[in-house]
Fold this sequence. Notes:
The protein is of the alpha/beta class. 29% of the residues lie in helices and 19% in strands.
Amino acid sequence: MQWQSPICLLSGHIGFAEHLDKIPFFPAQSIGAIILKATTLEPRNGHPADRISETPLGLINSVGLENPGVDAVIKDKISALPKLKITRKNPKIQWIINVAGSKVQDYADVIEKIETSSHHQTIAGFEINISCPNVQHGGAIFGHDEKLSAEVVSACRAKTDKTLIVKLSPNQTDISRIAEICIQNGANILSAINTVAAMNIDPKTQKAYLSAGRGGLSGKAILPIALLNVHLVWQVAKTYNIPVIGHGGISNGDDAIAMLLAGASAIGIGTALSQDIRISQKILNAIKKYSRAKGYKDYTEIIGKLTL
Ligand SMILES: Cc1cc2nc3c(=O)[nH]c(=O)nc-3n(C[C@H](O)[C@H](O)[C@H](O)COP(=O)(O)O)c2cc1C
């Protein structure tokens, strides 16, 4: 992985990055990649309120992939990235587009539109969110089905030579098998885990808090689930020499180091940004300090060192 830092900011937590410029002393140098908000073929309004529900150790969200659609993303968002202050502070930041869709063709069309636009060079790669329901298959989740995963990843691969990251869902029985299928169909990097299916109920109203009824849990509560899933994915991915971005619940240096030990080559930060938007620098410092204390040449020696 050719990132100048092993830390990335996760999709859905920093929009299209425009607000980062308003944060004083934002540690741009500590970031290897920024994964932007989901982009779909058509604009989406997302679900009605409430879309976020707090739990003691994380958030349940059902934002519903709100975004202005790929044409507006190219025109207003991707075109703005080179002019951002953080790009000037760290020109090596890798900008990644998170792609979502309801049909295989939607994903492929989003990538094709970006690749054939005059702004395609701003983008380093695509992260394919395969946790979306497929409307042509009764709402089955792409990433929970071997055939649908293969179809969507190979359709995306056919549209780009850039880095293709596939983001895996923990809400399935065999993440290792789906990981292997994604690699065999063209993924260069795997990313795990997406949010964990969850629900929150208000005893007063006797209703679910979220308008969609259910959502995805992120934040501290999911770290142990993420560690296991990343370790399982890494066991497959290493046999193909494919790196894994590990994420889910990382909120401090020890969490990040545990994720590297589990097999991640890079780590992603999402929900923890709402507590501390500058947390990437603290986590990077902790990884460096740990590597020094262990006598390692750098953090890459931590990757997969877990002993069972
Ligand atoms: C409000 C919110 C919006 C999100 N939007 C997206 C999205 O658009 N695409 C995507 O692939 N993941 C999305 N995610 C999932 C995150 O990228 C990430 O996988 C998840 O938050 C787990 O990491 P964390 O525990 O560090 O937050 C979203 C998560 C939250 C909480």
